[in-house]
Design brief:
This protein folds into two domains: 268 residues, L-amino peptidase D-ALA esterase/amidase; 100 residues, Ubiquitin-like (UB roll). The protein is 32% helix and 28% strand. It is an alpha+beta fold. The strands form two sheets. Strands 1, 2, 3, 4, 5, 6, 7, 8 and 9 form a nine-stranded mixed beta sheet that branches. It has a four-stranded mixed beta sheet with strand order 11-12-10-13. Helix 1 crosses helix 2, helix 2 runs parallel beside helix 3 and helix 7 crosses helix 9. The relative contact order is 0.14. Strand 6 and strand 7 form a beta hairpin.
Length: 378
């Protein structure tokens, strides 16, 4: 299994990115990812009830079919809290791209990120689509991965290659996310592509398993977005014997987990204003869910996160956070160990003497720069 810290599109995929005028800065703001053949799709979305229009449309399309040919993503505008007009804008985007690609609109996933409660400038997107399509290429991933960013300071990307039989399989992932990071799912967009031939039920289960221990284990500020999406396409172009739940499934999950965890950690490492990357591990819990609840309680504690920023070894904030999470943990059931706060990566180990289960979550410190960024965001 080979790991590359860059995005390398699998066989049968092309991409592109350009600036269509959504961002005032003139930076790239429209991305397109395409499969040359219909691909199986598996998607997971935010649990926020204030669902953005493109997610509503994607859920509707996923009910009709599981074969998709393209994902179009705009940044700078979330197309959320825009009512029926916003839903129509997302559908118009899908229709315009489908017409240009010669596929049905239900085979297009639309995705958006940016400012909430503003109408999507759909005419700018429609005008840009012909050029977006005409310049599709394998190297176009380098533009596409930039076009999905908002307040990010760097690109999140990774590729894993491994073999099934005598066939080389590639899994490539790109993501965006730096603020409004909370689990279920973290505030982010992530797009994962593979040329593996894999059964739909195996693809769905693999993605669910890997998201559980990666994107659903990160938090920066405990604020959940309205547009969170993890979308995965598998087009089968590698020509391998089909991966089923009983056939090469664990190997596929191992590779996919590397992709998801790397992207998730990268999001935390790019957290708005961050100076510290914090890993919180809880062991000795009654269940993995109990361990995760305790870990997230600490990770979402503003008092703890500001203490880490100030390099203040106030362990009482960890104890208070664990005690407030509703698990009824007693004083004699907990031990805490924290690594040096002087380093950029901080490790917190919490031992609960209640069982054998464990969980790990990832977060960042809360800083003055975080406040400045979000005070000025509009």
């Amino acid at each position: 299994m080979k790991i590359f810290k860059k995005a390398i599109l699998p066989k049968g995929f092309k991409a592109n990115g350009l600036a269509c005028g959504i961002k005032r800065s003139g930076k790239l703001d429209l991305a397109l990812f395409c499969s040359q053949v219909n691909a199986k799709a598996s998607c997971l979305f935010t649990t926020n009830s204030m669902l953005a229009a493109p997610l509503k449309l994607a859920k509707a399309y996923l009910k009709k079919n599981k074969d998709f040919g393209a994902i179009i993503v705009n940044s700078g505008n979330a197309n959320c809290f825009t009512g029926n007009a916003g839903l129509k804008d997302a559908e118009v985007t899908a229709e315009a791209l489908a017409k240009e690609l010669g596929i049905k609109k239900e085979s297009v996933l639309v995705s958006s990120t940016g400012i909430i409660a503003r109408r999507l400038p759909v005419e700018k997107i429609k005008k840009a689509i012909p050029g977006l399509v005409s310049d599709l290429s394998e190297k176009g991933i380098d533009k596409a991965k930039l076009a999905i960013l908002t307040t990010d300071l760097f690109v999140k990307e990774i590729t894993v290659k491994f073999s099934v039989g005598n066939r080389l399989i590639t899994i490539c992932g790109v993501a965006k996310g730096a603020g409004m990071i909370a689990p279920n799912m973290a505030t982010m967009l992530a797009y994962i592509f593979t040329d593996a031939d894999i059964a739909q039920n195996a693809l769905d289960k693999a993605l669910s398993l890997c998201v559980k221990d990666s994107f659903n284990c990160i938090t920066v500020d405990g604020c959940m977005s309205t547009n969170d999406t993890v979308a995965m396409l598998a087009n089968g172009c590698a020509g391998n014997s089909r991966i089923e739940l009983h056939n090469n499934f664990n190997l596929f999950v191992k590779a996919l987990n590397i992709v998801c965890l790397e992207l998730a950690k990268s999001i935390v490492k790019d957290a708005e204003g961050k100076t510290k990357f914090i890993e919180i591990s809880v062991s000795g819990a009654k269940s993995s869910n109990e361990a995760k609840i305790a870990a997230l309680s600490v990770a979402n504690s503003n008092l703890f996160k500001t203490a880490v920023f100030g390099e203040n070894r106030n362990f009482g904030r960890i104890i208070a956070a664990v005690g407030s999470c509703g698990l009824g943990i007693k004083e004699e059931e907990i031990k805490v160990k924290v690594s040096s706060l002087k380093k950029k990566e901080v490790k917190v180990d919490i031992l609960l003497m209640r069982g054998k289960a464990n969980a790990t979550v990832y977060t960042a410190d809360l800083t003055l720069e975080y406040i400045k960024i979000n005070a000025e965001y509009n």
